[in-house]
Every structure is written in structure tokens, then in C-alpha cells.
Amino acid sequence: QAYLSYSNIAALTHLAAKPGWEVTSILDDVKISTHEEGDMLSLKVEMQVKIPSHLAFSLLSDFTFRQQWDKHFLTCKVLQTVNEDEKIYYVTSPPMTGHKPKDFVILVSQRQPCKPSEPYIIAVKSVTLTSVPPSSRYCRSEILCAGFQIYSDSDSSCTVCYFNQVTSGVMPYLAANLTGSSKSIEDTAVECIKFLE
């Protein structure tokens, strides 16, 4: 478990640090960038939020709040509290036209910064739990690497960066047409900012 949580944080840190992010859209307080590598498509959404970074961290690290602002989260419940920095959640998402609804078993690892210049980190990846086998009602899906980095800009504002690494199979609507879907990403980001503020 220690290895899993370490690799979860490390994978997100590695993804965030990759060179070659291309900005695809800028709208008011939201900037969307993508990074392509083979059949891996990564997404980065930067949001300017007018609350302190520690508050954004506490709101975003509790995934049971997620369905208040992210319409891709239909339900979310804690399956296991591994320790104070690690929880395993069971998430379902609404069905896309012609598809079964998806479900996920995810490990969410959180870290506070050691130095003021470092971000708060909330890393997400799928894990396998024998107690939650795939069911025929849902299409079990995998999150390879996702999460948030939260940088403090001042005492009352911060930059929240959301990352998601997807393969072409995970999010058909994302990979099929990034430009078209940037609207839904922007909408979600705007909802996230509203929720935080």
C-alpha cells in the first residue's frame, strides 16, 4: 500500500512535469492544455480560484463532494480509509448514449507541501479490490493517472491544476473530438471554481 500511494503521487508529479503541453483553449479563469504521446492523451485544466490553497485542498481531496460539481460523477462512496492521506472510493458515472454506465474503484492519495513553493497534491488511480468485482450492470473502467495540484498564489487565491491521462478507449467523447469536448471540460471547470469559491 505504501508503494501504491507513492507511485500514485509520483505518477501525477511526473505527468505534470512533462514538457510539450499545448494550450488548446483559454477562457477567463480556465486554461486547457493537452499532451499526446503514442495512444496516450493527457489533459491539463488550470483554474484560478479566489480561496486559499489549503481550503481548496480540503474541498477537493474529499471525493464525496465531487458530484456537486462534476456531472461525470453520479455516485461516490468511500470503500476503505487506508490512512488519513489515502482513501479508496467506488465511483459510478452516468451512461453515454448506447453504452452501459461506467464504474471505477480508485485510490485517492493526498500530500501536503513540504515547502511553500510546492503544490498540494491529490493523486488518483484505479486499483483492484477483490471485495468489489466488476458487475454486469456497469462497464468497469480504469483511471491511469489523474488528480490535482494546487499552488498558492496569495493568502486568498490559488491555481488549481487538474490532470487526467486517458487512453483512446477510456473516454470516447474526449479522444474523438478534443476541440468539441473542450466546452464540456470548460463547463466542468467553471462548476468546480463556483463550488470552491
TrEMBL record:
GO terms for molecular function: lipid binding. PROSITE patterns: START. One of its GO terms (cellular component) is cytoplasm. Residues 18-166 form the START domain. PANTHER family: PHOSPHATIDYLCHOLINE TRANSFER PROTEIN (PTHR19308), START DOMAIN-CONTAINING PROTEIN (PTHR19308:SF14). This is Acyl-coenzyme A thioesterase 12.
